[in-house]
Amino acid sequence: MKILVVDDERAIRNSLKEILTDEGYSVETAQDGAEALSVVEKEKFDVVFCDIKMPGMDGTEVLDKIVAEGIDSAVVMISGHGDIETAVECIKKGAFDFIQKPLDLNRILITIKNASERATIVSENRSLRKKVYGQKMIGESQPMVHIKELISKVAPTDARVLITGPNGSGKELVARSLHEQSARSAMPYVEVNCAAIPSELIESELFGHEKGAFTSAIKQHKGKFEQADNGTLFLDEIGDMSLAAQAKVLRILQEKKLSRVGSDKDITVDVRVIAATNKNLREEIEKGNFREDLYHRLSVIVIQVPSLDERKEDIPLLVDYFVKQISTESGMPAKKFSEGAIATLQEKKWTGNIRELRNVVERLMILGGNPVSEQDVSLYVSPVQ
Length: 385
Known about the structure:
Blueprint: E1 2-6, H1 10-22, E2 26-30, H2 33-40, E3 47-51, H3 59-68, E4 74-79, H4 84-93, E5 97-100, H5 105-130, H6 142-154, E6 161-164, H7 171-180, E7 189-193, H8 202-207, H9 224-227, E8 232-236, H10 243-255, E9 257-258, E10 267-268, E11 272-277, H11 281-286, H12 292-298, E12 301-304, H13 315-330, H14 339-347, H15 353-367, H16 374-380
Parallel strand pairs: 1-2, 1-3, 3-4, 4-5, 6-11, 6-12, 7-8, 8-11
Antiparallel strand pairs: 9-10
Helix pairs in contact: 2-3, 13-15, 14-16
């Protein structure tokens, strides 16, 4: 990990460099804001420790330029004259953290560790965005045009969004598109499948836990809300979340605070929550399975994702997209689909939606001829209705 220390006081620069070098980090220094900007434009630094009060260009101006130019570094502001208002202002401008002088080594090392964890999450998100699968919302049907228009309007805001629709219809694509078109796009995007996590573990997974909080808690664990701080948290299948976990999520949405399992200390988080479900939450409320107050908190904007049966005119575009995608991923030669094959696919009832269509396209590329014919579809895809 590479670190840049920016401070007009030589003693502080050299002392911090020596300490961090002993900890195994690669450290460079700059004596003022102008030098700092010159350095970060040439080299990539994971963390920049920057004093606020410096002659000429002060630290906040350095922060503004780093953020404006999209330089991918966690900027930690340091000051001997800091107060809460200054700290809050720096965080709003895009600083990763704020530390007061005299500098405490443990606090510095914890901040670097947190920045490293954040960088890992951001890197993973970028890798996901580079993958072909799931990164494009394919379709020109009226329902898809409507959804894309909604996303373009809602994404730039911090409004919470509830995405509904059947399994396999692409709810996660809508969530990711909302994040990528938002002002939080450079920050973490964290996904949680609430249905896949055992009910006894969901609170630890979402809110984290302290060492010793329960038998298997051998070390402190940051939950998904903390991991998504300043970014977006996607709660998939939220209709399967326990009532106890729902109560804690509601508190976070109301107060922007959480406490880890086994701790009574509040931690402030700034997270945009996007939720999705294949259930009718109104019915779940009536059954006593879902909190009505949480539903209203989550459903500021509701986006209904249509089933594939409601947008069959998009099947030709989807088939073409999946053929190219599967060919790229697997190395299989791309195949054409005849008009008869496409027409037969459009007659089918797609209970598995987009996910099922992709599997069918892959099967036909393996087993069918070239071009894939109507007979191939009838032979290898059933039932066709």
